[in-house]
Write a structure and sequence with these properties.
Radius of gyration: 17 Å
Oligomer: single chain
Helix content: over 70%
Low-confidence stretches: none
CATH superfamily of the largest domain: Tetratricopeptide repeat domain
Order of helices and strands: HHHHHHHH
């Protein structure tokens, strides 16, 4: 996409939002467009506009967390996901996402804790089971977590 194409897309998403502020898909795609262009604050604003009732809420929170994390705000990044988990208690993606943050930080005990919670939600999820095994292998002393 060229700069003009991005600008046109931005204009179209903003028009859709003006017509219906509860068009969470427009907010989400505007957020991802801004994130792609490294426009972090407008991206975060768009993602924060998405209601917890929307099926895009968890994805939006993960995008916000990712932006905060890449900008060195790791605690804020983690807290965003913890708050999202308190709202969407059974969203497997959120547990896996926070576990991946902890794993990258080599905080395997916390990573394992969240992966175990994810397994309670979906006990036979192969990706989660593999992630748990991988995390435990990286830090065998944390098996007691």
């Amino acid at each position: 996409m060229t700069g003009g194409t991005f600008d046109n897309a931005t204009k179209q998403f903003n028009n859709a939002i003006q017509l219906n502020n509860e068009n969470y898909y427009a907010h989400y795609y505007l957020g991802t467009l801004n994130e792609t262009l490294s426009r972090d604050e407008p991206a975060i604003f768009s993602f924060k506009s998405i209601s917890p009732d929307s099926d895009l809420f968890s994805e939006a929170q993960m995008h916000i967390s990712y932006i905060k994390n890449k900008n060195g705000k790791k605690e804020e990044s983690i807290n965003i996901i913890k708050k999202a988990i308190s709202i969407k208690k059974n969203d497997l993606k959120l547990y896996r996402f926070i576990a991946s943050i902890y794993e990258k930080e080599e905080n395997f005990v916390e990573g394992i804790k969240y992966l175990k919670q994810a397994i309670k939600i979906e006990p036979e999820n192969e990706d989660t089971l593999f992630s748990l095994a991988s995390c435990m292998k990286k830090h065998p002393c944390s098996k007691k977590a």
